Structure prediction request, 230 residues.
Amino acid sequence: MVYHSSKAISCACCSTRIDCNGETHYCHATLLPLMVKPDFAHVLSLFPEMITAQDGHEKQDCERAAAKRWLNRWSHLFTPFSVTFLGDDLFANQPLCQQISDLEQYYLFVCKPNSHIGLYRWLASLTLSSDSKRVWNGKHGEIWTWRWVNDVPIREGEDALRGNWCELHITHLEAAFIKRLYVAASRPRHLLCLAIHKDHISDEQIRALGSEGKGWRICDLSEKLANHNN
Prediction:
């Protein structure tokens, strides 16, 4: 969390960054952990760790180094295997993951393909387990699809720490619906028409399938039947 940033005001404890225009920004930041719990609406702010120049270090301080210091300082407050540390791709590196494992705790970090090339090479060569289900999010339906595999190295090298990998892909049901119809429409020799109850298709889907999208001709049969009966 950055709580001060300036191009003009600075001090000896400031961190610096240079933007794309070559201008230097001086800032003060902190790593601010939060304690969260599933299905619980409140969060608890824990002790912060300042991101600032450290005595005896030539390199600029960073979030990774601050996270290691925080663990060294406060990890004794938690009983073994009681906490799962969450973080983005920045924290998904072997030294920090190893430190958390040595503390007998869990971690769940984002690991992007472009920063974990060795891991994703392994994934490409393996058969991944998968599962899916339909979920209602309160506004519309979704398809949740999981893929996972256990005991894979998180980086290249014989000394790589091994962990478990998982992926969750969420698909909007309306988007999946349009995709299925498009696949059917790509085989015109085998499909002459498709009838759908008008209550099961929205105006947005009709526009996407018709003039604005896939070129389907949409016809309201209820009006034609009413005219025919009259």
Q: What stands out?
A: The first strand starts at residue 2 and ends at 6. Residues 52 and 58 are 12 Å apart (CA to CA). The chain is about 25% helix and 30% strand. Residues 175-229 form one domain.
